[in-house]
Specification:
518 residues, Farnesyl Diphosphate Synthase, 4-stranded parallel sheet, two-stranded antiparallel sheet
Amino acid sequence: MNIAVLDLIVPEIKETRAEIRGKVEAFFRENRIIPPISYEGLFDFADKLIKLYSWDEKYRAFIMVCCGNSIWRNVVGSVPYNRRVLLLPQCLKNSRLCKAEYDELGLLCRECGECNISFFLKEAEKLGYEVLVTDGTTVTAQLIETGKIDAVIGVGCMEVLQKLFVSVNKYAIPSIGIPLLTCGCKDTIADLDWIKEEIFNLQEKKEFSILDSSEIKAKTDSIFIEKHLSNILGYNGDKTERIALKSLLLGGHRFRPFLALLGYEAFCKQPIESIANRMAVSVECFHKASLIHDDIEDNDDKRYGVDTVHAEYGTPIAINIGDLLIGEGYRLIAESKLAPERIRDGLKIIAQGHKALSIGQGAELVATKNGEILSLNAILKVFDNKTAAAFKVSLLLGATVGGADKKSLEALDMFSHNIGIAYQIMDDLNDYQGQNGDIAIRKFSILLSLLLEKISTFDSVDTNRIMELIKTNSIQDDTETLLKQYISEAKSSLDNLDNFGLKLALHEIVGKIFKDYI
């Protein structure tokens, strides 16, 4: 839906603005909506309210802003001041008297008092806000991506607010939009009371608590320091253990252990560090074991820019190291101080994931041996068994150990299924785009499977011909369409997740992973 087609009009009369804001607030007090919410969702609510109160259609965009604010206000109010950013437009300045300078972030207010910018700057910074006086949304998007802020309060014209919505909605960042009363990009006027109301809004509602993803990422990274990791594993310098330790420390984003900790802290009221550490290392053990075995099966000599384990130590040792890491993954959970039923459930999740991975890898190996191109359904099943299974093990293990209920686990299972398949589709798409069509059969590119849907037979060895067929049959477009479908389904699957902090964190993760496709 194209948001640019709306009239971007703010009611001139103060009483009209107050009526709309008040009735929208009352509506959402009676009809509680758990964010995030899409543009389409806001459009539909505005439609309902316009009909209910016979409001002028030209105020639809303003009503949508008020709807979004009402849905997010309690969440923003629960975010500490020092984790918020206040965005003020440069056009609020007194253009005749302003002597401020500018840098790459925007206007550097001299706090002369000739306009309202200095007042809000002082008040907000005193509370702990990050304050930016800028007319663009690029800087805001960059700040959001750093993970340093958890909420945005933006003041601007309606056009800027709709652009800001795109940025904050992509990452599910709690936000409040306050439209300027006049436009023209010079000497504009704002509703000062409204701005003050939103700046000072602070609530302590635990049901809207946000997980600090940056802190959890830092905890994850701290686990994979040699001395700390060696202590968790209980290693004492055995030669085989040293090789296993080296492989665990080498490369990677630690995304799987991060997801495990995220799931654990989302559901556990009093997280225990030793349990969290064992769980994080367990999922990384399984991941690194699968890579070691994959490298042998694919005959790859380099990973993370260095020799693979089998290239450095030989295939027999590499197989043994992979087996050791699998055993360690199970041992770390089995010997933890969890309740017996939690250990049982955790081991079941791991075993199911291990089985799925082996079946998915087996399908690839058999297809390679037979020189097959997998059908679309077959390759999606491989993606589910390999990539999605890794997401499932990490998230479900963490959530289960943390005490998640059945409904939450089912929602996380479906989310993992969709995001895992989407991730692998994107990976194949990036390989195709980034390596000038290097789509050898061993890569099991989904582009080949989609091509097979349109052309029943073609020579899989003739790369130039395949490239031509992919272009003439719009296979790249088909791949992107399928990717966006799974991204959408991943986000929709979170509608059934009641844990607000985890729900928001996972929406943010989806936004960051697939930012070029949302």
